[in-house]
Every structure is written in structure tokens, then in C-alpha cells.
Amino acid sequence: MKSQFRYLLCFSFAVLALPAAFAQAPAPQLPDVAPNNKKIPVSLIVDDGVFYSKKVPNTFLKKFGEWSIENGVKGKFSIIPIYGGVAAIDGSNGEYPGTTKEQRLEWIETIKTLITPRWTITPEIITHGKPWDIKNHVLMTDMPKENEWIAEQTLETQTEYIAESMRLLHSVGIEFGGLTMCWRYPAKKNHTLGEATLTAAEKVAGLKFVMIFNDKGERPGIIYKRADGAMAVSMRPALTDLLDYSDKFTEADIQRLADTYISADGTSGQFVDQLKKGVCLEFYTHYANLYSEGTYHGLEVLTIAIGRLNKFYGDKIEWMTGLDICKRFSEIPETTTKRI
Question: What's residue 333's pLDDT?
Fold first, then answer.
């Protein structure tokens, strides 16, 4: 009986001590990422947007748009105007097999009403594959991939090709803000790419400022500036895509990837490492990787990671479209890579 009483007494003291024990546990110390009280620009880049409904259905585009609003996310979203050289977004050479005209038009309308307000739209060149003969409207199957081919062309040819990619979006009422290069164009030729893109955008839509996504870096920077002040600015994100289009993600994979972006307590991860630099946070993924073969696992990873980012650093960051973050850094000297 005495032993039972002693056990109950000890248990009671232990229970009473629990609140004090929890109270003594220190909260995780978040790094000071904005000591000058200036909010750090944040932008998400999503590549390879396609209107081919068998690859990623229209329902996912709507889900993605709603998700962006719910989570406060902004960034850059690219569209491949003639994916694989099969069918154009303007319907000029028919529809993709398994995709109707109504589905294509519905996708375009969703871009205009749900995506455009929070995302800078760009063409991702024309086919994301072999170059497109813009006069005869066929693939140049004997040529290397678009990015390799265009880099070897004259400035005039590059400008015409980029203008056609923009025209395809413009013709269906999609406002664009620049260009995305599929794979990569040689960084040493960025000045030429900037000039060609700016000239093309001015020709198609009268733009005097364009953003480009081509290479990586620590912050956006001017790659071409004309005497009249018109310019092209490259986004240059530091973080690469961690996601995969596979449907084989496990719950452990989802949590591991989210932790790689930012830990559950907000103290570590790639996002935090970038925020500590006090410059900007730009990261990218691919549209199909968010869809993850219909499982939405990629989107789930970002939901967790961005939820943590907003929870712990929401008062220190500012979500921006691709165009807006490029405009912000066009006003900051290139040598400034710390504490904007």
C-alpha cells in the first residue's frame, strides 16, 4: 500500500512539473534576416507550362492558381507556345491529340484571369525542343535543340525567333513580360540575348523593360541597357529545383524535401540560408513536377515549405512577380549582394 502511495505521489509531482518543464524549453532562435527593416524580395519561378491537357489537365492549373492566392505566392510562369512542335497555343495548326479547342481556350482563360495577376508570364522559347521554322511552320528536325541553335544565330534571327514566341501568346490575349530560355543559353552571350529579347518585346507589345530567365546567380541583374533607358534584366535564381514529376513520393519524401527548403522550426534550410544573405530569395521548379503525375506531391512539398516560410518570416519578406523583382534590382548596383 505504501509503495502504491509513493508511486501516486511521484506521478502527481511529475504531472505538476510538466508545465514548468515546457515553459523552461527555449523557443528556437530564428536568424536575423532583415536587420535594416527592409523586406527581402521573394519570387517563385515555374517553368514548362503546357496547355496539352493529357500532360497536365486544366483542373490542375486552376488548383495552382487558387493555391497561389491562398499562400500569397507570386513569381514567373512560363508557357511553351508550341510544345514539342505539335500544336500552337493559338490553334493555328490544329489541336493536340486528346485535347479539344474548348480545353485549350479554357486553359488560356485561366491563365488570363487566375494566373496573370500574380505571375509574370513569359514564353519559354517556342517548342522546348527542336527549333521551329517560323516561316514554314514546321520543326527543323535536323538542327540541335532550340537553346543551342538560337545562340549561334545572328542578332536579327534571334530577335525574329523570340518575337514569334511572344506573338503566339500575344495573339491569344496573354500579356507577357519577357522570355524564358529552355535549358540554357551561354551566359557569355547574355548581352545579345538581352538585346534580342528587348527588341522583340518592343516590336510585339511596345515593352521597354523585360525580364529574362536563363542562368543562375545570387540576384537579378541588368544584362542589356539601351541609351534610352530601356533594358533587359535576368532573374538569376540561386536555388535549383528539388522536386520530381514522379508519382512515387512517400510521406517521408515529402517531409524530407520540405525540410530541405526550410526546417519545421524555421531555423535552417535552403530558404533560410538565402534569407540570411539579406538579398533575395528566388527558387524554381517545373509545372509537371508540381503536378507529380496527378498526385500533387510536388505542390504538397511547396505548400509545407512555403507555409513555414510565411509563418516564420512573413513579416520580413515580400512576394514579388518576376517582373517586379527584376525592376527592384535594376535600381540596385550590381555590386550590392549583401543587405539590400
Answer: 74
